Every structure is written in structure tokens, then in C-alpha cells.
Amino acid sequence: MTTPNFIILYVDSPEKSGAFYASLLGRQPVEASPTFAMFVLDNGFKLGLWSRHTVEPAAAAAGGGGELVLAMENAAAVDATHADWAGRGLKILQAPVDLDFGRTFVALDPDGHRLRVYWPNEAAGQ
After folding, report:
1. Nearest 5 degrees, angle CA 111-CA 115-CA 118?
2. Is 79 helix (H, G, I), strand (E, B) or coil?
3. Which of 23, 41, 63, 98 would bridge 113 by S-S if both were Cys, CB 3.0 to 4.6 A apart?
């Protein structure tokens, strides 16, 4: 079976969004231009940021239709990440809360893409 290893978010400004994600992820993009930026994470997953003005074929979707999910090592790390991101001025849609799958919160990137941070609880079996 094929395993997805790359996601592309359509953004207004890859340079601005690239700087945002570089700060958030603690790493620089491996590729950066006025129309595209790409990050490669430690597990090999790739995050691409493509200008919504130049993507071919043109995209109709806007931010907020999905979530980029970041798993944490424990519930305290979820809370610490929330405090860090709130301190950086990220818009928080959902403050840290315990849901049926675990501890989580949701923030927005500059283009309105949802960023979910979570730690699965034992009952979720993840």
C-alpha cells in the first residue's frame, strides 16, 4: 500500500508562511522561493507551502478545510505548546481540552489552516 508522506498547503505568501513555519518547527525550509517553500521533518514527512496564486491547476479551497496534526509526547507538552503558541500570538480556536481521543488544542496559521496539537489518551488505543 502507498503511504502518504507529503502535504501541500495553499498559502497567500510562501515567504511569509515559510518564516512562520520555520519559527514554529524550529528549522529552515529545504527549498524556498517566492512561490513555494518545503520543510522536511525528522520522520521524513514533507510540508509544502505553495502560492495559491500560482498553483497549477488553480485551487478553489481555502484554509480551514482540514488540519495539520502534530502529536506530542504527553499531555503536559500539549499545554506547554499551547502556552508557547499563544505567547507568539497565534489565534487559538480551541484551548487545551480533554476529548474522547486525548488532550488537544487547535490554532490557526496565517492563512487560516488549522493546526491541531494532541496527545492520545490510553482509551484511544493510539
Report:
1. 175
2. helix
3. 63
Closest CA to 96 of 69, 117, 71: 117
Residue 59 above 90 pLDDT?
Answer: no
Residues β-bridged to residue 50: 10, 36
Out of 31-35, 58-62, 92-96, least confident range: 58-62
Q: Residue 94 phi/psi, 5° resolution? A: -140, 120
28: Cβ–Cβ under 8 A, 6 or more apart, which residues? 22
Distance of CA 80 to CAs 48, 94, 110, Å? Answer: 26, 15, 21
Rounded Cα distance between 60 and 106, Å, is 23
Q: Which of 47, 114, 117, 115 is nearest to 79 (CA)?
A: 117
On whether the CB atoms of residues 47 and 20 are closer than 8 A, the answer is: no
CA dist., res. 9 & res. 61, Å (int): 10
Q: How big is the chain by its Cα radius of gyration, in Å?
A: 15
What's the burial of 92, exposed, middle or buried (CB within 10 Å: 0-12/13-18/19+)?
middle
